[in-house]
UniProtKB/TrEMBL annotation:
Keyword vocabulary terms for this entry: Oxidoreductase
Native source organism of the sequence: Sphaerisporangium dianthi
Family: Belongs to the short-chain dehydrogenases/reductases (SDR) family.
Keyword Oxidoreductase: yes
EC annotation from Swiss-Prot or TrEMBL: 1.1.1.-
Residues making up the signal peptide according to the UniProt record: none
A molecular function GO annotation: oxidoreductase activity
Official protein name in the record: SDR family NAD(P)-dependent oxidoreductase
Coiled coil segments of this chain: none
Keyword Oxidoreductase: yes
Superkingdom of the organism of origin: Bacteria
């Protein structure tokens, strides 16, 4: 038995990559995990089945996290099954354009900003009543090193995630007195994710060469940092950012 046993963790975008790795790790630490997904029902079911095969508890929940009504419906289903959400890991990645600013429309830049903040707003609003009621909660947002270290073509994602990081700091200040911590995990390039697929092999080689630890991150590396923020070990940490990039960028 651990302090995590019985806690309910909602992981958005948990059917693959970082989200799936995080769901599996939190379940292994005794949490009951909600595997949120939008389109990949089969993949989400596989994550749930894998957790249950290891003796953990999981349920899948389809919802577009950009839509408040869908998120609220998901939270109702979770409450009916397990009660309120104790831990929110907001990992879901909304679409974005990869192109130079000069070629970008406002709908592409502004649309990504709107999607990013709308999703964070909706899921956070939905889980706060239960966390506030019990005087305990953990909120972890997945950011990106691109919010601090620009890379060609990534202005939409980097700008949107920079807004998310500042949003997290404001929430950390406001929610601290309620016993709720808010932190951000900012990975660098991560293997076996959708973002990794947009990188060419030459670009990957350059990134590995620029990384003191000599490789790109795996989803499990990022999940470890998320799990730390989701547990009791980080109880006196809020408003902080963990860079999981092997030393590629240091701040």
């Amino acid at each position: 038995m651990t302090e995590a046993t019985g806690r309910v963790a909602l992981v958005t975008g948990a059917s693959s990559g970082i989200g799936a790795a995080t769901a599996r790790l939190l379940a292994a630490r005794g949490m009951r995990v909600v595997v949120n997904y939008l389109r990949s029902a089969t993949a989400a079911d596989e994550v749930m089945a894998g957790i249950e095969a290891e003796g953990g508890q999981a349920m899948t929940a389809r919802a577009d996290v950009r839509e408040a009504a869908a998120v609220e419906g998901m939270i109702v289903r979770v409450q009916e099954a397990w009660g309120g959400v104790d831990v929110l890991v907001h990992n879901a990645l909304t679409p974005y354009a990869i192109k130079p600013f000069q070629d970008m429309t406002w709908d592409e830049l502004g649309g990504k900003l709107d999607d990013e903040m709308r999703a964070a707003f909706a899921v956070t609003k939905a889980v706060l009543p239960a966390m506030t009621g019990q005087g305990w909660g953990r909120i972890v947002y997945l950011g990106t090193g691109l919010s601090r270290q620009p890379r060609e073509g990534m202005i939409a994602l980097g700008t949107a995630k920079a807004a998310l990081a500042q949003f997290a700091r404001y929430l950390a200040q406001e929610l601290g007195p309620r016993g709720i911590t808010v932190n951000v995990v900012e990975p660098g390039p991560v293997e076996d994710t959708r973002m990794a697929n947009v990188l060419g092999e030459e670009q990957k080689r350059r990134q590995v060469a620029a990384t003191p630890l000599g490789r790109l991150a795996h989803p499990a590396d990022v999940a470890q940092a998320v799990a730390f923020y989701a547990g009791e070990e980080s109880a006196f940490m809020t408003g902080t950012t963990a860079a999981v990039n092997g030393g590629m960028s240091m701040y």
